[in-house]
Amino acid sequence: MPVPPTASTAPAEERVREAALDLFAARGYHGTGIRQLAEHAGLSSASLYHYMGTKEDLLVAIMRTCLERLIADAEAVVTARADPEERLAELIRMHVRAHAERPRETRVVDGEVEVLGAAARAEVITLRDRYESIWQSVVEDVLTAIGAPAGEDARLARRALLEMCSGVARWYRPDGRSPLEDVADRYAVLGLRLVGVPHPSHPSH
Amino acid sequence: MPVPPTASTAPAEERVREAALDLFAARGYHGTGIRQLAEHAGLSSASLYHYMGTKEDLLVAIMRTCLERLIADAEAVVTARADPEERLAELIRMHVRAHAERPRETRVVDGEVEVLGAAARAEVITLRDRYESIWQSVVEDVLTAIGAPAGEDARLARRALLEMCSGVARWYRPDGRSPLEDVADRYAVLGLRLVGVPHPSHPSH
DNA sequence: GGGTGTCGATCGATCGATCGATAGACGACG
DNA sequence: CGTCGTCTATCGATCGATCGATCGACACCC
User: Fold this and answer.
1) Mutate to test the interface with A, among B27, B29, B99, B156 (most CBs of A within 10 A)
2) B153 falls in which pLDDT band (50, 70, 90)?
3) A12-53 and A56-194 in the same fold
4) Is A194 within 8 Å of B190 when comparing Cβ atoms?
């Protein structure tokens, strides 16, 4: 529950962003007051508005940055790999890494969409759909490549994969027993087995 | 965002519970005001306090009920089945059913733990740990039964399984394309493959 | 007439947001 | 050089609204 204050050496604009990330992730958007935000960033609540629009604008900016980064990373993976199974494995590793290294961002993105007004929500959901559609086609390609039976449901598998990988943000700790790359590799194995790849014995990289 | 009001025929105490479930799930705990809660339940905000303690008490009661039910159902599954693979398959089906049929409860339980004070949070986390420990031992038994290599991580697999199954609450709609039992069965197949069961061809029931 | 429900009125606190004021940095002009 | 005007950054004070919670009063029922 207690969140240590943001380091006060960075420029104020970054401190505001960091403070919002810390507090929105820890207490939720509605659970975070403007004054807490200001105190955490080392400014007065009035000064806060020199760097942001409304509180909701701040939330949207965080979500947009995070989602655009995920999309760019996913597109880079698809560009870099041709083999369907390798693509999926690398997509899983990328997603797991992102959620483990930036749990605050992903927690805010995954958990605060419903507080947005209609316009902002539409924008964020469009970005999320773009990201998920990349996964969708990669999963479909894998199912085709392994000659999956007609009953296999790519949408179901995609949802199961994404939820399972996003969950990493809720439990991974950098000081835990296994290094992040191990977790990412293991998740790639679990994910490939999940979709039905018989022997996911690909090299890690 | 709009949430239709709770039917006004039920007794007031149930209406309060239902209203809290609706609004906490849709707008979050901090996003829901006492007056919205009262209006949704068809009472005045003062009358609300005839049926509940504090707003937080109401939240805790919802969480406790949901978690105790999950624990009881999980224990029933373990009692009814002896084969490790069948146990895990049935555990998955149960969890998926629960999250699809009661998305509001599970969304509140999964997403609002951090708003609780220390005492209430400790109680809820204890219940959650009880539930997860049941899964943990079932997953371990499956790994042993199939002679999994020593490198397999039961904790990792358990977390992946639980996150993937809980995600159903975020997308399942009863009017969707596949009936709930299909989804539950498919998830059981995906989950067994995930942990490494070679041919999860068990009958559905 | 003691419970059982229900309510309007209201409490102090906090909410998100805005105001006008102030202090300093920087360049332009004479 | 000095000294204006503008721009950026910051703040205390305060706005109206809403927050969670409580009070005393009223109505009904057994």
Assistant:
1) B156
2) very high
3) no
4) yes
Per-residue pLDDT at A102: 97
Hey, is A125 helix, strand or coil?
A: helix
Query: Selecting from 1.10.10.60, 1.10.1140.10, 1.10.3330.10, 1.10.3210.10, what CATH number does the domain B12-53 have?
Result: 1.10.10.60
Please, is B66 exposed, middle or buried when counting C-beta atoms within 10 Å of its C-beta (0-12, 13-18, 19+)? buried
Query: If DSSP states are collapsed to H, E and C, what string results for A60-91?
Result: HHHHHHHHHHHHHHHHHHHHHCCCHHHHHHHH
Identify all chain A residues contacting B157, using CB atoms and an 8 Å cutoff.
Answer: 190
Choosing among 1.10.260.40, 1.10.357.10, 2.60.40.10, 3.30.9.100, the CATH entry for A56-194 is: 1.10.357.10
Chain B residue with minimum CA distance to A152 = B186
Closest nucleotide to A48, Cα to C1': D10
- To the nearest whole Å, the CA of B196 is away from the closest chain A CA by 7
Q: B164–A166: do the CB atoms touch at under 8 Å?
A: no
The CA-based dihedral angle spanning residues B53, A31, A130, A54, taken in that order and rounded to the nearest 10 degrees? 140
**C-alpha span between B53 and B89 (Å, rounded):** 40
User: Which of B114, B178, B181, B190 best probes binding to A when mutated, by most A CB atoms within 10 angstroms?
Assistant: B190
Q: How far apart are CA B141 and CA B88, in angstroms?
A: 9
Q: CA B115, B120, B123 angle in degrees (round to 5)?
A: 125
pLDDT tens, position by position, B161-197:
999 999 999 999 999 889 999 999 999 999 999 999 9
Q: How many CB pairs under 8 A join A and B?
A: 96
Per-residue pLDDT of chain A (205 residues; tens, 9 = 90+): 556 555 567 787 889 999 999 999 999 999 999 999 999 999 999 999 999 999 999 999 999 999 999 999 999 999 999 999 999 999 999 999 999 999 999 999 999 999 999 999 999 999 999 999 999 999 999 999 999 888 889 999 999 999 999 999 999 999 988 999 999 999 999 999 999 997 755 554 5
**B55 CB and strand D closer than 7 A:** yes
Q: Model pTM?
A: 0.92
Chain B neighbors of A99, CB-CB under 8 A:
none
